[in-house]
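Aggregate trends can hide what the representation actually does to any particular protein. In the encoding step, the backbone of a single protein was reduced to a row of integers, each denoting a local shape. The record that follows shows the chain in one-letter code together with its fold in token form.

***
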Amino acid sequence: AALTVRFLTRRFIGEYGDMEFIYSHNLSVDGREILFHIWDVPNSQQTEESSSEEKRIQWADSFVLVYSICDRASFNILPLKIQFIKAAKEGQSQEKVPIVIVGNKRDLHHQRVVSSEEGRLLALSLDCGFYEVSAAE
């Protein structure tokens, strides 16, 4: 949620509840207006029944999966999430689904438990993009 709000408002808010939100946002990219619809799902809700997750996957055109570099468990669930997304989306068509893995909390390097290299290697092995960021910065 912090990363989504930072993208939408350019402000950092550190604490969020466990709420699911859909945001809409216009952005000019290369002179073209792009309308983003962002379905922000907290990690605690990503373990729900697969029918809810399937609905989200069918709704979306691309995916940004965010983990905390300070939380190994948030990183470890990514391969299964990505396999689930690919099976649901790519099974319907031959097009590659755009997926980006984002390691957040780069500013908390002193609490890091997942290395940048691990993130890059995971993204490479699953044919995804990769970035490390800090919503706070």
